[in-house]
Amino acid sequence: MYGQRLSRIDKGAGDFVTAVDVEAEEAILGVIRAARPDDAVLGEEGGQQGAADAVRHWLVGPLCGTALFSRSYDEVTGSSL
Length: 81
Description:
By secondary structure, this protein is of the alpha+beta class. Helices cover 27% and strands 32% of the residues. It has one domain (9-80): Fructose-1,6-Bisphosphatase, Chain A, domain 1. It has 2 helices and 6 strands, in the order ββαβββαβ. The strands form 2 sheets. Strands 4-3-5-6 form a 4-stranded mixed beta sheet. A two-stranded antiparallel sheet has the order 1-2. The protein is elongated, with a radius of gyration of 14 Å.
């Protein structure tokens, strides 16, 4: 998808998401769920998933720099805490 024109889904207040954001978050969640199925996750795109009283909670922001990525700039990263 990199280098291709990406459609944007408006999230409000000047923020938006692309299909790449959603797919990247799904890939990250797949890895977390496979290794730690009882953990809870708060995803930037998918919201809260898993038990609120889980021992471990993950915060997932799939792409830092969506605006740059959607314009085919190289300066993007991913993060999981």
